[in-house]
Amino acid sequence: MMISGAHEPVACICCAQPKTVVVPFDGAVRSILLSLREEFGQREDAAVNAWRLGHMLFEADAAAGVLADAASLTARPTLYLKGLAQRVYEAGKPDCTTWDQFRKDMTRYDLMDLQQNAWDAIEAGDAASGSIMLTRCLSSTLDVLYESRGWWGVKPKRRLQDLKENALLMNLSSMTERKDAESNSSSLTTTTRNDATQALQLSRRIARNDLELEQRFKSLKSLVAVVVAPLVYALAILQNHKR
Question: Regarding predicted confidence, which is higher, 238 or 217?
Fold first, then answer.
C-alpha cells in the first residue's frame, strides 16, 4: 500500500496484494490511517496480517535509516501501523468464551443448516450439488474453527498448510497455558489444542473427490461436531462460574 502526499509519497508498504492510494496529505490521509487502526482494534485478520507481514519499503522522513523520532500516526504512519499490527497480533484474539449466547446459538445453527443442506443434496442423488455443499460447509466450518478458538485467520489456500504446521496455533496455546498457570483458570485454547490436527485429517477426507459422498459427509459431521463442541463447553464454564 502506498499513501502519497500532494507532491510525494509519504509511506509505502509491500503487501500480498499491493494497492495504491493517492490523496493530499491532510484529513483524508488521517482518515485512512484511523480506519486502519480501527480495523486492528477489531482484530481484522486481513488488515493485521497485511501490515504485520508486509515489508516496509520506505518512510518519507527517515534519514539514512536513522529513526530520529518515535513512530507516530502522522510522522511515521508505516512504521507506526506496522508496530501496532505486531502488538495486536501478539495480544491475540478473543475466543468463543467471550461470545454472547445468541452468537453461539446462531453459529451452531448456521453450521448445522449447511450440513443438512449438503445431506439433502446427497440423499436426492444430486452428486454435483452435494459436492458443492460439502465444500461450502467445509469452508464455513473452518471459518468458525478459527474464530471460536481465537486463532488468527489465514488465506483459504493456506489453511491446510497452517493446520499442518500448527505453529501459530501451538504458539497461541502456549501463551494461553502460561497465563493459565499464573491465574489458575480454565482455558478454551488449552482444552482444544488438538483441534488443529483433527480438523486437518477430517478436512482432507472431506475434500477427497475419490471418496463416496456419504463417506465425505460422515467426515463433515465429525468436523462440525469438533468445531461446535467448545460453544457448549464455553457455556458450561460460564454457568459453573456463576454458581
Answer: 217
